[in-house]
Specification:
- This protein is an all-beta fold.
- It has one domain (13-86): Beta Barrel (OB fold (Dihydrolipoamide Acetyltransferase, E2P)).
- Helices cover 0% and strands 50% of the residues.
- Strands 1-2-3-5-4 form a 5-stranded mixed β-barrel.
- A hairpin with a 6-residue loop joins strand 2 (26-36) and strand 3.
- It is flat, with a radius of gyration of 16 Å.
């Protein structure tokens, strides 16, 4: 008798702003993080863009969204839209 073990995987979630919604089922999201320099203790902003899967095409440019890590959907998409927190 085989016993199946269910993996409880915790996926990373990020918040960001949609900067482009021109693709078919794909949006590009800009995430800003404040980082403190280890030696000089100055804070600066680090930005990164993510390609996010939007199955229904609900998000528009300027929206604030929450997105979550998932399996690879294409060459660059590894994130999916969870919900839209604030409309533009």
């Amino acid at each position: 008798m085989a016993v199946e073990k269910k993996n409880n995987v915790v996926h990373r979630s990020l918040k960001g702003e949609v900067i482009s919604a021109k693709g078919n089922k794909t949006i590009h999201v800009l995430v800003k993080n404040k980082v403190t320099h280890p030696k000089y203790h100055k804070q600066y902003t680090v930005t990164k863009k993510y390609a996010v899967h939007d199955e229904l095409g609900l998000a528009k440019a300027g929206d604030k969204i929450l997105f979550q890590e998932c399996r690879p959907l294409s060459k660059t998409k590894r994130w999916r839209l969870v919900n839209i927190e604030k409309k533009a």
